[in-house]
């Protein structure tokens, strides 16, 4: 049969076929050789044909292995995709350009003339493993930060027993160093988390924490207590607490702030339980027995946490970009620096009342119970606000929730100056417990919102918690120096804390403006 006798091909007679260039996709007769696998090029422009959730920064593995076929680059942005918009945002173009530059340096050819859609990264948003991760993370924070926030109980005991010969300012460095080592370790912990070492981090952190608490029960001298409580327990907590929050960000996106708030509420529970438990046992059974009792409770809870928390298997379409490349991109991101500066300022304000509220209440309240239970009042209210702030943040946006809470922390720090009567002090304790509890919960989610995809969550959180470490290291000592310089007056110290929170709030407002422009939405 000659060509003239062949029947014509048409849409109605041509059978369905598969594209020779992209297996599984309909064949297009207009396909060009440039779209074939042999071109080994990247497509970076074009319109988005269908609405989708955020795509990962790079959706094919191009950094670790040679390119064997067409590699597609998706949208790096979080948030809704504008349906039918043929033109990407300015930020999207800029970020794609940075990716292209990194690829070209590594010798990969890049074609920016066309684009193909990439598969989107899905978040489970629930399920047994996801909620078990929430439960386990809550137990970890209950055991660890719950005890860390009970340092005032240890301080009161040290002043009358093992460390009676040391001034309170020297003893307080144990608590400050513990928090600094904890938060400063979070950066390396975030890097390891992004590389997939979560299970090892949780196990090593749990073992180290238990070694520290049982060693503390035997400690007699300042250096022994410092090594056990500040160094050993601080490093162990730093290894695992950030990853325990970051893992929730891999399971949840829409309800991320809510589940982080649930996990953070474990801190408030521990900060209520441990002061009561230790305070009673210190008097009845002695320091060693009390600390060992707390240690055995922690042993049981941490074993459960290690069993129930399982890391999520990240989709193979999400590429873990080289660390140096990611750090360069973060360093060039103005929103990141504004967020970290805002977090730094507000956390300085948070810790000053927490460190000095007991002595402040002893000075100004005529009710001894108010001074004794001042921290417990704050932590009870913080339990509810940490969960509630997460619910609000998931509806209104993380920045939209964090900024008012940051402002409220600053205002209440200033207001503490006037809380010089028992009724006024009780009102302050209630309001500050709500504000600082909600702030601490939402601030962890703020770090995660900056990540382009799940492969950056641990690193972003680690950098953010390093700035928290700086705030814990310098904030309270500066406030203590101001107290000494003003002969015990709290006015200068509280004005310093309130002013830093106001600066932090302003920086967060500017960061929010950048995020609004990037996502084309006011719900950020």
Automatic annotation (TrEMBL):
TM helices/strands, residue ranges: 130-151, 171-193, 200-219, 225-245, 257-277, 289-309, 337-358, 364-384, 396-419, 425-451, 463-484, 490-511
Family: Belongs to the major facilitator superfamily. Monocarboxylate porter (TC 2.A.1.13) family.
Positions with biased composition (Polar residues): 10-20
Entry GO CC: membrane
Topology relative to the membrane: Multi-pass membrane protein
Presence of the UniProt keyword GTP-binding in the record: no
Region Disordered: start-end pairs: 1-88
Keywords, in A-Z order: Membrane, Transmembrane, Transmembrane helix
Pfam families reported for this sequence: MFS_1 (PF07690)
Gene3D superfamilies named in the record: MFS general substrate transporter like domains
Cited InterPro entries: MFS, MFS_dom, MFS_trans_sf, Proton-linked_MCT
Domain spans labelled Major facilitator superfamily (MFS) profile: 129-516
Biased composition annotated in UniProt, kind: Low complexity: 28-57
Compartment(s): Membrane
GO MF terms held by the record: transmembrane transporter activity
Name of the protein this chain belongs to: MFS monocarboxylate transporter
């Amino acid at each position: 049969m000659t060509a003239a006798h062949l029947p014509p091909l048409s849409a109605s007679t041509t059978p369905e076929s598969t594209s020779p260039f992209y297996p599984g996709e309909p064949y297009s007769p207009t396909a060009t050789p440039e779209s074939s696998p042999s071109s080994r090029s990247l497509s970076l422009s074009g319109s988005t044909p269908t609405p989708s959730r955020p795509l990962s920064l790079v959706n094919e593995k191009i950094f670790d292995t040679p390119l064997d076929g067409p590699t597609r680059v998706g949208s790096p942005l979080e948030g809704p995709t504008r349906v039918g918009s043929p033109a990407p945002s300015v930020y999207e173009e800029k970020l794609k350009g940075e990716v292209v530059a990194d690829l070209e340096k590594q010798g990969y050819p890049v074609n920016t003339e066309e684009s193909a859609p990439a598969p989107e990264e899905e978040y489970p948003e629930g399920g047994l493993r996801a909620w078990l991760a929430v439960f386990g993370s809550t137990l970890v924070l209950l055991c660890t930060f719950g005890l860390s926030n009970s340092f005032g109980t240890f301080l009161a005991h040290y002043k009358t027993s093992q460390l009676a010969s040391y001034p309170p300012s020297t003893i307080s460095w144990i608590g400050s160093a513990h928090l600094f080592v904890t938060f400063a370790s979070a950066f390396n912990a975030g890097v390891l988390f992004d590389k997939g070492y979560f299970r090892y981090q949780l196990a090593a952190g749990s073992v180290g924490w238990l070694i520290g608490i049982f060693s503390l029960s035997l400690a007699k001298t300042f250096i022994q207590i410092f090594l056990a409580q500040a160094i050993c327990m601080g490093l162990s907590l730093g290894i695992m607490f950030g990853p325990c929050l970051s893992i929730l960000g891999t399971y949840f996106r829409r309800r991320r702030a809510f589940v982080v708030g649930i996990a953070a509420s474990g801190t408030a529970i521990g900060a209520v339980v441990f002061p009561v438990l230790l305070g009673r046992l210190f008097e009845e059974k002695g320091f060693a027995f009390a600390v060992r009792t707390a240690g055995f409770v922690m042993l049981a809870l941490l074993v459960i946490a290690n069993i129930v928390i399982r890391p999520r298997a990240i989709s193979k379409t999400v590429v873990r970009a080289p660390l140096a490349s990611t750090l360069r991109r973060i360093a060039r991101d103005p929103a990141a620096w504004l967020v970290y500066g805002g977090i730094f300022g507000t956390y300085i304000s948070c810790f000053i009342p927490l460190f000095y509220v007991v002595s402040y209440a002893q000075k100004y309240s005529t009710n001894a119970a108010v001074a004794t239970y001042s921290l417990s009042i704050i932590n009870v209210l913080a339990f509810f606000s940490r969960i509630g702030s997460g619910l609000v943040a998931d509806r209104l946006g993380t920045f939209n929730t964090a900024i008012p809470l940051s402002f409220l922390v600053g205002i209440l720090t200033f207001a503490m100056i006037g809380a010089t009567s028992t009724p006024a002090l009780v009102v302050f304790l209630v309001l500050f417990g709500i504000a600082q509890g909600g702030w601490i919960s939402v601030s962890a989610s703020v770090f995660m919102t900056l990540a382009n995809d799940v492969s950056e969550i641990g690193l972003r959180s680690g950098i953010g918690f390093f700035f928290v470490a700086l705030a814990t290291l310098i904030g309270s000592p500066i406030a203590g120096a101001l107290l000494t310089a003003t002969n015990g007056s709290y006015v200068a110290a509280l004005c310093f804390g309130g002013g830093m929170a106001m600066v932090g709030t302003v920086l967060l407002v500017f960061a929010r403006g950048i995020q609004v422009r990037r996502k084309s939405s006011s719900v950020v």
